[in-house]
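Appendix B. One record, verbatim.
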Amino acid sequence: MARFLLQHNAFEITVSDRTSYFFTFPTVASAREGADKIAGLRPGQLIVVDTRRKLDAAEKLCERWRRREISNFDYLMGLNVLAGRTYNDLTQYPVFPWVVSDYESKTLDLTNASTFRDLSKPIGALEPNRLEMILERYKTMAVEADPNMPPFHYGSHYSSAGIVMYLLIRLQPFHNLHRMLQGGRVDHADRLFHSIPATWKNCLINTSDVKVIRICE
């Protein structure tokens, strides 16, 4: 079962040529009924991916990556698929992590550790000053103990339809979808995606920006 708009009311079928078909339903019950009916037809080579099979597939995928049988892209894309992410749902669009931290040098020194970000920490914890502000906000909210607003570290989620459209605005259909959010017009230039280095910098210093890199089509 795939998620649509953060609800378990959809499922996706992927065929051998990697074409996928995404079906959404008004309720979880109707989605399960639809999936059961398709499974009941017993189409050839149908594999239902449940939690156990996902774990087995993830282990095999990781082993293939370790043996360098697949690229980094294929490995991460495989994890996205197993996690239920899909190109067919903006709220569950595939995500890639920031790996490189040097977006200024003309040539990257891959032997220099500073070329890469610290993957042991989330994006929100990479910059000390911002981390201090985030932790202080959490402590303040915990002390106030507002029942309608539980304490949190990050004020935004790393994955949302708005972020997908922000990063892919120069491609269709994302350009028109973005305009739909702005009253039919493109947003102000200084709020549009225009630079990977600038986006990376903003992810380090902005207390509400925890974007991850999106896959471009």
